[in-house]
Write a structure and sequence with these properties.
The structure is a single chain. The longest helix is centred in the N-terminal third of the chain and has 23 residues. 78% of the residues lie in helices and 0% in strands. The chain is an all-alpha fold. The model has no long low-confidence stretch (mean pLDDT 84).
């Protein structure tokens, strides 16, 4: 499911940091690559419509992307696309889009170059408060708390 793919980063980062020595780190990295590859093969087995939609979302998530826009891109009606997407990905279109945006937000927060307002706009949210609300829903903490934890 897409939710597990999108949340792999945090778990793997924690495992890599907690590695006691180089051998333990290598073992952790090997397991990380295995999980990632298995996830990618699962994604590859999705219908072409869903794969095209995911590629489109990954390119356009920073803008005001809509279900209608993505459905049009894959030449399906919005209601059928919504149902198909949910069946295949295990989450709704909106939840998937928000997860993608939050993951990119986490990456940008870790870089520490932009403030939270700039990051919210860069990942497609119209305002910082909604970004913070969605970010907290998926991570359990605010963007500021997450940045402090990852840059400490």
């Amino acid at each position: 499911p897409s939710e597990s793919i999108l949340h792999m980063t945090d778990r793997f980062y924690e495992r890599a940091v907690a590695s006691a020595d180089v051998e333990d780190l290598c073992l952790s990295l090997s397991e990380i690559v295995d999980v990632f590859m298995n996830s990618m093969f699962q994604l590859a087995s999705q219908p072409e419509d869903v794969k095209r939609a995911i590629r489109y979302i990954s390119k356009k998530f920073g803008g005001q992307i809509t279900l209608q826009e993505v459905a049009d891109h894959v030449h399906l009606s919005p209601s059928y696309f919504s149902t198909l997407f949910h069946q295949r990905m295990g989450v709704s279109f909106r939840d998937y889009l928000n997860q993608v945006r939050v993951e990119e937000g986490k990456r940008l927060l870790a870089l520490g170059r932009e403030n939270i307002v700039e990051i919210a706009f860069a990942v497609g949210f119209a305002d910082q408060s909604y970004f913070s609300k969605v970010f907290r829903k998926y991570t359990g903490m605010t963007p500021k708390q997450w940045r402090a934890q990852t840059t400490a």
